[in-house]
Amino acid sequence: MSHFESLEPFLQRLFRVSEAWGARLSPDRTQVAWIAGNLGPTSQLWRAPADGSAPPRCWIANERDCDWFFWAPDSGSVILGQSRDGDERVGLSQVALDGTVRALTEERPDYYIHGGQIDPAGRFLVYAANRDPASGAEIETPIVYRHDLASGERVPLARLARAAYVTPRLSPDGRHVLYARKDRDPAGRQLWLVGIDGSNDREILNAGDARKADAQWAPDSRQLVVTAETEDYRRVGLIDVTTDTVRWLLDDPALHISGAHWPKGSDRIVVTETISAREVASLLDPVSGARSAFPPAEGTLLPIGPAADGAWICYHYDARHPMRLVSRHDGGLLSVSGLADRSIDPSELAAARDFRWRASDNREIQGWLYEPKEAARGAIILVHGGPTAHSEDAFDPEVQYLVAAGFAVLQPNYRGSTGFGLPFQEAIKEDGWGGREQDDIARGAVALIAEKVAPAGKVGVTGTSYGGYSSWHQIVHTPPEVIKAAAPICGMTDLVVDYQTTRPDLRPYSEEMMGGSPAQVPARYRERSPIHFVDRIRGKLMIVQGLNDPNVTPQNVTDVRARLDAAGIPYQLLLFEDEGHGIAKPENRKRLCRQLARFFAEAFAQ
Description:
Elements lengths: L2 H4 L1 H7 L5 E6 L5 E6 L7 E6 L7 E4 L4 E7 L5 E7 L7 E6 L4 E3 L9 E6 L5 E8 L6 E11 L5 E6 L9 E2 L5 E6 L8 E6 L6 E4 L7 E5 L5 E7 L4 E7 L4 E6 L6 E5 L7 E7 L2 E7 L6 E3 L6 E7 L5 E7 L2 E9 L2 E4 L17 E6 L5 E7 L7 E6 L13 H8 L2 E7 L8 H5 L9 H15 L8 E6 L1 H12 L7 E5 L5 H7 L5 H8 L7 H6 L12 E7 L8 H13 L4 E5 L9 H20 L1
Parallel strand pairs: 31-32, 31-33, 33-34, 34-35, 35-36
Antiparallel strand pairs: 1-2, 2-3, 3-4, 5-6, 6-7, 7-8, 9-10, 10-11, 11-12, 13-14, 14-15, 15-16, 17-18, 18-19, 19-20, 21-22, 22-23, 23-24, 25-26, 26-27, 27-28, 29-30, 30-32
């Protein structure tokens, strides 16, 4: 039996571990629902009593993925968004507590829907969609719709001037709809408010044409908790929607604020900071502005909101403990989701080690390093997507399998990542994609070699989305003694093709990061596209793609394969007909893990 064959039972157990995400407390705070993966071929909707008095139960499991949901105001149902095979064509339905499903939109619409909240009277559904009101055809720019559930009439409440990713939020009393626009600048996000009857559509906060603001409704429907960018930090305040005035509660450049929300049943606002890629929560008094730390626990503990019994429902996780939902009592933590497979003991899993190195401009770069118990057969750099995101000290079955297979794994938080303050996040825009952030990643490989984590010629790179783009960039620009092999997953190869073929609501992100569209900065798009440099490849290459991907479309692969074939560059190819932007289904993820381990082992052996 080969080493990889002996790991098969461990691989199977890793993908029986379920994690919870997208969790929401019901409005009456007696129940919590969440989306769970790895419990079937698609992601499922689960729920449990918020007090942990009964075990969790599966609410919805079918051939479609559960993408997101919102509770109805009466706590008797949820509005559920589902798609199929990664196509991101989300249809909305209403799911009652007994599991009865009522379709509200097309199951697989020919346009993209975001959001989906129902008003307290149960009459209207509010969402955004890039759908023409007259013809029903897909268009470039989204419209905020009020959908009459009895008649099916869809009334436009607000029409955006430019494409944007918009998730409207209905006030708890059902009278107003909060949404965001990017009409002024691709890098900005302004807050707007419109009445449920379409009246008084207006801008209520502009933090700056090229700055972003986010907001959540306060429980009283009269205020919004807002997080807004300044030049180099974020601040938190309250907007009075009757006067459109803002009162800033936290305005401190030393804080690395990442978000804020005011949960129902709490007299304080939850504020999150991301400090050195770790999430930390505090509670903010909306009257005095006083702030207190949320009671900590081993690992990361993120509060969602207080249950009806007063105990806080929270996320709890670290690298050796899969994400779960817990109820925090004075006596400690009580599991609510209860879905972590106990056949995986924490001692079987690798812990995350904070690993740091210096960039070309002497900027400190951080990452999470996972190491096998024995000497590593090589190292794999697993680059996060986004790039506006960050890797955490969190359970990842792919990472744990690769470590068990004998590899060290580094997850770098290169410039452009969140988690190190707004200036670090914005630094990627100084060069645009394919700039110094890629040198940050390459120097991470050099640091692994210098620290003897892996020998020269035995470091590879992989990742999904922007991690896939980074993998392409590294294999075409970095010599094999530093980066020997790359396995890009759903990664951009031609940034012009990516811009032209991606979903319209995602194009502003490319413009923000690249400093304009391909028509405005054509030279930058060309010089940062790996497809034009494939003749430089000297290392090993495996291309991975979901064929239903609407984000980084399969044309990225089709076009680059033609260039590779013309240049005589060998490569392996792994395609998934039932996946979209990323490999999500458990059986497919297991197949990917096996292929990655074998690919890097063979590459490092040559």
